[in-house]
């Protein structure tokens, strides 16, 4: 999809579709009035017939313009309430518009209200790129639905240099989010821990990042016994991945982004029922976010050191599988009593978080498709945020709010800690069902020492069964934009 800027009047612009926006209760004035007049009041009449009043998410399509204006069709899109309009609205509109028109348009023009303010072009472009994402790799006879080749922004206001910056930024963000989506969508037979490590080394090579990958024997030698235990039931060897971005001017600040990389979660010996096992290829969603974010970080070059850490394994039922009742000594020396082999994410993360502490980072943020309980509590569209530092939790929540990824904080209720007390080890890997997302976070807290840490449980929003105005079906890349926003401020 190519983005261009045009100063030609929208009346004359030659496009398959001209997209116009209208707020709720907006009077026809300015360009909207001019176009409606040229079309003999057709937009107004059509809107009345269809009861369209500018609600967000609604639109009307005038499918013939009979040569009265340059474009063949007009899509009038509802922008909702003017007072509620933000760049997040534009992202949503980009997603919606592209899905409406992608099967029959190749040139799409947007009138000037879509580029009037700084940040609008990048938000709309992000939405368009996000909405045109398709995962077609395994379709034999399908070149995809998206026919859109060119997007024209009609504007006399925006400077060509800012336009270029904004569209390039949108492309970078979308490529990073789409990398995460692709990784989640790949079937587990392809995306094994070794394959994930290969992709990580490609990301590192492309972005000039340092890349260390620990194989089975290195993981064993270093005493990453949580990762060893979880992978023991699988024929696929585990991988521990460490990417590092260093700014060119050395600074003191450093942060670790840690991802759960379970490439398939069968539940292990505490086997999941068939229905719950389906979609468990998504259980590496946290690691996909780490790779997507590192790709963007390499290009955006923030002024801090960023470590991307991934603990990757399958969780299977082989003869050597770890068992309920086992006790494991994690990388930081704490002992874990295994209550449930299906609570494997926190077990592999125990090693990754302890490793992050060793790097002497100032902050740790982890992302994990960690608990079904988080989905029960918050629904599928919102990620749970917890941590040992209210300041860091607030910063993550603020970043996610500003770019339109929904997060909500869950409380680290001290009374719940008893749930994961163990009789024979330092800690149990599972408590009762009550407060399951919180006790999982409390488990993780044992491995971050006193480093400020935030945990983002993306079990719900990492993968969508149905498409939504924010994302396609399947892998969503949820979290990539929050992390980029948090690290780069952009
Ligand atoms: N990967 C799952 C969590 C999950 C569930 C992610 C549904 C996405 C959708 C995790 O490893 C798991 O199985 N958690 C258990 C924990 C329990 C055994 C304490 C759960 O949530 O049931
Ligand atoms: Mn599990
Ligand atoms: Zn899991």
List keywords for this structure.
single chain, 490 residues, alpha/beta, Leucine Aminopeptidase, subunit E, domain 1, 2 domains, six-stranded mixed β-sheet, 15 helices, 19 strands, binds ligand BES
Descriptive overview:
This protein has 490 residues and is α/β, with parallel strands linked by helices. It folds into two domains: 2-155, Leucine Aminopeptidase, subunit E, domain 1, CATH 3.40.220; 174-488, Zn peptidases (Aminopeptidase). The chain has 15 helices and 19 strands. Strands 7-8-10-9-13-17-14-15 form an eight-stranded mixed beta sheet, sandwiched between helices. Strands 1-6-5-2-4-3 form a six-stranded mixed beta sheet, sandwiched between helices. The longest helix is centred in the middle third of the chain and has 26 residues, at 160-185. The chain is elongated. Bound molecules: ligand BES, manganese (II) ion (MN) and zinc ion.
